[in-house]
Design a protein that fits this description.
Layout lengths: L4 H16 L3 E2 L6 E5 L4 E3 L3 E2 L8 E8 L8 E7 L2 E3 L10 E3 L11 E3 L8 E9 L2 E12 L3 E8 L8 E9 L5 E6 L10 E4 L4 E4 L8 E9 L2 E9 L7 H42 L11 H16 L41 E3 L2 E3 L1
Parallel strand pairs: 2-11
Antiparallel strand pairs: 1-4, 3-9, 5-6, 5-10, 6-7, 8-9, 10-11, 12-13, 13-16, 14-17, 15-16, 17-18, 19-20
Amino acid sequence: MEPPLVVVVSLVLLCAAGLTRSLSITSVDQSMFEKAQGEKVTLPCTFVLSEEDEGPLDIEWVLIPADNQKKEQIIIMYAVDRIYNHYYAAMTGRMQFTNPDPKSGDGSLDILNLKSADTGTYQCKVKKAPGVQSQKIQLTVLVKPARTKCSVEGSQEIGKDVLLKCASQEGSPLLSYDWRRVSGSQELPATSMLNKNTGELLLKNASQDYSGTYSCIASNRVGMDECSVELNVTPPINTAGIIAGAIIGTLLGLSVLAFLVICCCKKHREKKYEKEVHHDIREDVPPPKSRSSTARSYIGSNRSSLGSMSPSNMEGYTKTPYSQVPSEDFERTPGQNPTFAPSKYDIAHKIGDITVV
């Protein structure tokens, strides 16, 4: 048999009355925070105790990892009237309880000098037996756009398409880019096409009126950064003249190179010829042998033979031609003349074709 409806309602009211008298967390208005890197954030955690909560008060902040397989990381804790803040080295010196006396009912947490790595889910747990309550807060640390650079791509000539590019080296998504003209009419050309997500500004069929200074603003939810670039649209360059000049310069360079090669080859041949002629002259060949002694001995022997001859024994004598007599080639030093012994006979006797002295 089901209990009467009046009894059920009474039990619900009694349970609700009991819950209101137990520990409760009152800071439930905001559960998501977005802050910029380097700023400070206060994660709220206020609570109310009841008369039934008689146990020791414990307040604990933990970081819940994105991976459910990993354990929760205790950041800071209040227990037995003491604060413990050495559990999480990544935030050492950057975190503290907002109220130096958390038992007063304020267990909020301050995080100073925020970093992008501080992004995550934080949970505040308040315990005072028998009451136990907790609250989760999502913190997102965003990086402001920084080191934004502007550049121009393409030929800055009349009639060409010019692309202006803008990009931030730092910054959390979603980044948005916006271009504006800061000189002249201060309005973008009518042919321009802007992509806010990529930061590209396309100027089609550029004219000299497009010249000027353009500025790009990169922004996200926590900040902005700016850069600028100068655009100078000029008439087309005479490419035919440049090509002709390049060809002429190349030909001149090749001519000079050929001339140098020819000169080097000619000089090399001259040196080779001089070397060959030099080797043909043999300086180590000894001089011809002197035949003075031979001629003298030959003449002396003939004289002795003629001296012993008489007219009676000259019939069988045969004349030796002068062409067979060795020439008397010898060198005389200056001032040195040969001396001969006086002749035995003052009168020369001629016998036939031979003269005897």
